């Protein structure tokens, strides 16, 4: 009986150890407009379609009011400590993994820090936005690596 219990105990310990070896799941945290400020520009992060977020490998949530601010943080800090980065779907504000989203850019698109980039959970939604608005260029997450990341000075001057 003791041998059976010992063998069962070893199997359970091995199963628990293997379960802990899986890929860590990172989840976006809700935006709290009362306390959340952008890590880069220190502006209030609104619970809106422009909010973005990085969850570090240690589980710390960094929130940004504009995708351009998130890009600036990556430029300053690198990407080695990022567990997952998230953007919001422009239409329903659902959190999406940065790499899986489709983006639309146009300098005339109003965003909190005037970077003119919005995100969508799928390509069809992004294309529909471009068709409806008559402006915008479709971008992938990979395309954003080569993006110039300039702010629209005209929008910044207007306080938008």
The overall average pLDDT, rounded, is 88
CA-to-CA gap between the ends?
Answer: 74 Å
* N-to-C SSE string, H for helix and E for strand: HEEHEEEEHEHH
User: What is the domain tally?
Assistant: 1
Task: Count the beta strands.
Answer: 7
Low-confidence stretches: none
| Overall 3D form | globular
Keywords: Signal
Protein name: NosL family protein
InterPro entries: N2O_reductase_NosL
Signal peptide: 1-19
Which tags fit this structure?
160 residues, alpha+beta, four-stranded antiparallel beta sheet, 19% strand, globular, signal, N2O_reductase_NosL, NosL family protein
Task: Walk me through what this model shows.
With 160 residues, the chain is an alpha+beta fold. It has one domain. The protein contains 5 helices and 7 strands, in the order αββαββββαβαα. The chain has helices at 2-19, 67-77, 123-133, 141-144, 153-157; strands at residues 52-56, 61-64, 82-88, 95-97, 102-105, 117-120, 137-140. The strands form 2 sheets. A 4-stranded antiparallel β-sheet has the order 2-1-3-4. Strands 6-5-7 form a 3-stranded antiparallel β-sheet. A hairpin with a 4-residue loop joins strand 1 and strand 2 (61-64). The longest helix has 18 residues, at 2-19. The radius of gyration is 20 Å and the shape is globular. The model has no long low-confidence stretch (mean pLDDT 88).
